[in-house]
Amino acid sequence: MKRLPFALLAALLLSASVLAQRPVDHLALGKMWTFENPPLAYLEKEYGFKPDQKWLDSLRLGALRLGERDNPWCSASFVSPKGLIMTNHHCVRDQVAQVQGPKDWVKNGFAATSLEDEVRIPELTVHQLIAQDDVTSKVHVGIAATDDDVTAASKRKANIEALTVAADEQHLGHMHEVVALYQGAAYQLYRYRIWDDLRLVVAPHLQTAHYGGDPDNFTYPRWSIDFSFVRAYVDDKPADTSAHYFRWRQTGAQDGDLVFIPGNPGNTNRQMTMQQLALQRDLEYPMVVEQLQHSISILEPFKNRAPQLLTTLLSWQNSYKAIKGMLNGLHDPALMLKKREHEQHFRGAIAEHKELGKKYGDLWREINRLVDKQRDLLPKAMFYQPGFSSIMQRGLLVAKCLDETVDENDRKEARELAVSFAGGSSPLSHALLIDQFERASNWLRADDPFLVAVGGEHKSARGADWAAAIGELNSSVLRRDAFVRQVLDGPIGADMWLKSKDVGVVSARVLWPLMRNAEKTQELLDGGMGKQGSRLGQALHAVYGSNISPDATMTLRFSDGRVKGYEYNGTLAPWATTFYGLYGRGIEFGNAYPFDIPGPWLDKQDAIDMSKRVCFSSTNDIVGGNSGSCVVDENLRVVGLVFDGNIESLPNDFYFTSEVARAVSVHTDAIITALQHIYGMSRIVEELRDGAGR
Questions:
Q1: Rounded to an integer, what distance in angstroms lies between the CA atom of residue 192 and that of residue 179?
Q2: What DSSP string runs through 497-534?
Q3: Residue 451, Cβ neighbours under 10 Å: how many?
Q4: How far is it, in rounded angstroms, from Cα 154 to Cα 294?
Q5: What does DSSP assign to residue 608?
Q6: How far apart are CA 261 and CA 75, in angstroms?
Q7: Using alpha carbons only, how large is the chain's radius of gyration in Å?
Q8: What region, left, alpha or beta, does residue 436 occupy, with left being phi > 0 and alpha being psi -120 to 50 degrees?
């Protein structure tokens, strides 16, 4: 069958009257707009603001993607004509740790008082999107209507690689990326300029940036001053970025302001069906939330024994709060009703159109079939792993070496790792491993072969004494290098392995095929779900065209919104917080962690204008990857810096709303106050204000 021109279908095949019969919230899929297809009519209707191409180009070229060259993780922006870049402290925290040497710049802050003091950060880059090209037709060249899914995917992949190589050859020194939008309904070729000589300029105290710690994470009101500055250099000199940078607005954000956030959102689940979301609600998220909750409790007493343990704890706490917030949203009847109505509108539009019904009418049946299989697989994929057991890790390496179905090179690598294995058990890993099996007992069948193998004589109809079972596992012969070498190199090694009754060996023999089968099944299901997800995205584009925001892809978008407070907890959240609140919060909690205020801030308290703003909230649509994005007004002047969302925004992962969901940003007042009064960086204040609008 001839491939349907989806954009044309949206305009010609679906009449406005059909869609008008079923009102739908076109913003349910969010406000993460691409620059090649800006929602000009929507912006004019919503705000009376219609940007021209010059405005769009300036917004695009001032915004950046930050991270390693092939692994971006945050956003950033040029904020001066001399290569100065602003992002979040948490976006460069690990890189600061790598260059700080014996000095603890992460904890105590860093300020380069001159250009000569700015410190090179190896491998950190920013990407500037300088051109886009629609390559949808080129991606589909040579793909016949009769091609099966595997063949079509292979041809598509080859076309994308060819397009990228050709672009690299034509535009030397740039990086190119083919981006799939609407899950493959459209493709764009993005060209980036890479700035790879970045130097640290300012990083505040960790406690300044992370004020409130886990209790305040994903909340609002907020008092975190989460910013950092780095600078791009070219030929060992500050880069000339005078053509495209965001100027500083001296008044900062104000209540009711129209603001835009250019950045690189990572991904959302907004295109998932109700059945897919039910799977997350019933299995996926509860298992992950339980694991994180238990692990955080176990790790807490160990957190001060090593710096990396505190970092791990913070990461787990962040993940727990995020996923718990999403899970709560999946249990919200009103929100799920909106999601269901949106899906019904979408399905109705497909059913009412002959061609679309023929092409996509089986979508939900196919997705539901895969979801049913995932329900059986998810607990196995979660627990058929060695987890925190070094004994199991070594046992699996040995099992891999003895499995003749495994590629020879992979077996050789596994052998080297098994022989040189230096794993061990610590009180922390021991406690985490016991918890792993206790949780597994709740999610897997009682007669699950892996649980039976590890539990051994410690397992009964009433359950298992997992502490005793893990203790026996940790005494396995797999701890002995001589035994492992004998199994791998001895003339009867394989026979020894098969006949051993040691709990570690038995468990590894059982786990290896279970894990392999689970991985293969997961791969097949992922492939099937990927195919149906692509069809779903194409169907959405066919029905709604460019009226909806495409799925997030960790590439540049912009979001619109207003600075605005909201109702919460029986009261009102103000649009912005002040230094009065910051210092008051410190006093209220006895200046104890995580509400302790760093010494330099206490010492300079009298110099600080307490009425200055610290953080503010807005209705913009953000998600992970947007961290470090500038907040600009309609004249492209900097008024803030995004660093988080409130707890109410977490369900936006699957359905966007803005009644109480908010993006949370550092106000420019707080950044200037920190630079001037705490870090002695008047030179940066002057640079920011050079040519700034009022």
A1: 13
A2: HHH---HHHHHHHHHHHHHHHHHHHHHHHHHHHHHHHH
A3: 21
A4: 43
A5: S
A6: 10
A7: 28
A8: alpha
Report the C-alpha gap between 665 and 650 in whole angstroms: 16
Contact 264, 626 (CB under 8 A): yes
Is the per-residue pLDDT at 305 higher than 80? yes
Query: What's the rounded Cα separation, in Å, for the pair 434 and 469?
Result: 9
> Residue 359 CB: number of other CB atoms within 10 A?
19
Least Cα distance to 550 among 35, 126, 61, 121 occurs for 35
What residues does 503 pair with on adjacent strands? none
Euclidean distance between CA atoms 436 and 451, whole angstroms: 11
DSSP 239: -
CB contact set of 224 (below 8 Å; sequence gap of 6+): 208, 209, 210, 211, 212, 216, 615, 643, 644, 666
Burial 236-274 (b: 16+ CB within 10 A, else e): eebbebeebbbbbbeebbbeebbbbbbbbbbebebbbbb
Distance of CA 162 to the CA centre of its chain: 29
DSSP classification of residue 246: P
Which residues have CB under 8 Å from 321's CB, separation 6+? Answer: 214, 217, 218, 647
Q: Residue 429 is encoded by which pair of tokens?
A: 């890993």
pLDDT digits (tens, 9 = 90+) for 87-96: 999 999 999 9
The confidence band for 151, taking pLDDT boundaries of 50, 70 and 90, is confident
- pTM of the predicted model as reported, rounded to 2 decimal places: 0.90
Cis amide leading into 265 (omega within 30): no
pLDDT value of position 694: 43
The reply to whether omega before 594 is within 30° of 0 (cis) is yes
Looking at the predicted structure, is the pLDDT value of residue 22 above 90? Answer: no
Is residue 559 within 8 Å of residue 621, measured between CB atoms? yes
SS (H, E, C) 536-598: HHHHHHHHHHHHCCCCCCCCCEEEEEEECCEEECCEEECCEEEHHHHHHHHHHCCCCCCCCCC
Helices (H) and strands (E) in the chain, counts: 28, 23
Angle separating helix axes 481-489 and 408-419, nearest 10 degrees: 150
Q: Is the pLDDT of residue 581 over 90?
A: yes
Residue 590 has pLDDT above 70, yes or no: yes
Phi, psi dihedral angles at 262 (to 5 degrees):
-90, 130
The domains found in the chain, sorted by start residue, are 6-26+270-381 (no CATH), 74-121+203-261+560-689 (2.40.10.10), 128-195 (no CATH)
Measure the CA dihedral 266/271/275/281, to 10°. Answer: 30
